[in-house]
Structure prediction request, 401 residues.
Amino acid sequence: MSLYNIVDYGACADSSKVCTGSIQKAIDLCDRYGTVYVPKGTFISGALFLKSDITLFLEKGARLVGSDNISEYPVMGYPFEGRDQLCYASLINTDGAPHKNIKIDGKGVIDANGVALFNAEMSENKGKRGRAVCIRNTENVVIRGVTIRQSPAWCLHLVYCNNVLIDDISVHTKYDESGNKYDIFNGDGIDIESCKNVKIVNSLIASQDDCIAVKSGRDREGRRAGISSENIVVENCEFKSGFGIAMGSEMSGGIRDVFVRDCCFENTHSIASIKTVRGRGAYIKNIHYENCSLVNRSTEHGDTKWFRGALYADGFYGEEEFDADTPFDVNEETPIVEDIYFKNITVDTIAGNAVYLCGLPEMPFDGIYMENIKAVGKHGIKVKNISNLYQMNVEVTGVED
Prediction:
């Protein structure tokens, strides 16, 4: 296996020098199954584009830091928030062509310099903000060991990928490891969009928004593409801030067969959120949350249109005012939610509802299964437009009800 040390191609650990060209040259020259090696030190770079059959390896003590010059990030067509639109390139990217066998490995840090880029990209406003890492249209992806932090928007975004392993990584989008807050919004930890066969294991996520969000396109464009997210496992992970593990709200290609197991949530506002709204169409089904615990002492968010509680399924996500009693006509824009399982879960939170379940009057959520649940929240349980709610050994308490 060939090793391509970025220093040999002109990169240097000097905060006054931008090494984009040198690092990209190492990537471009790397032969099949070779490794692009980032040694100990801090290297400044703009947008980098990976290719098939290579490993990007960051040694412990290596820091790849995004340049604060937005001219280093070309504005390109990218999927974001369920639609194809112009976006600033991310720090680490693939282009839109099909790729295979891409690995990001090591114990180093990928720091997108997101606060500076957030301000610059919002000010220039030629496209949506970039991410720290965005891997698209790739078969066989491994991301292992690294720390990814401070993205201008979502941190790790995978789109149209198949057979993905994310193992033993740390993601920080709200605070750095010292507790200093990043001044950004819409800072999801990991977004899995229209991907199949994904495992996220043994990882730590401290997020400004959704810790993990499973998505599949938005409204008519998402239905037309029709690429689902399915067969996804999140296991043995730790969550330190943010909004837990979400399905949607962009889900117009369908989401199915997602399993969240053996995870611990601390000062997140939720464990589980099933989010949809009229116009999406498609489905969210066969979603399992099992053997999870939440202790939350943050009051930063209450019961709002963006967040309902610790365990929630919301058919009116993002709507300030809504009528949960008057049905609309059922058509291709009507989302279907069915077979959602909560098992062996404890919740102790002082924000929002312990449990909130609200489907559409014309398409009630069908099949919510709750077993061995002990949940305490500011409010208890709210249920509306749910068909077939099954409860076994469920104790829900609202301290202010």
User: Anything to note?
Assistant: The radius of gyration is 21 Å.
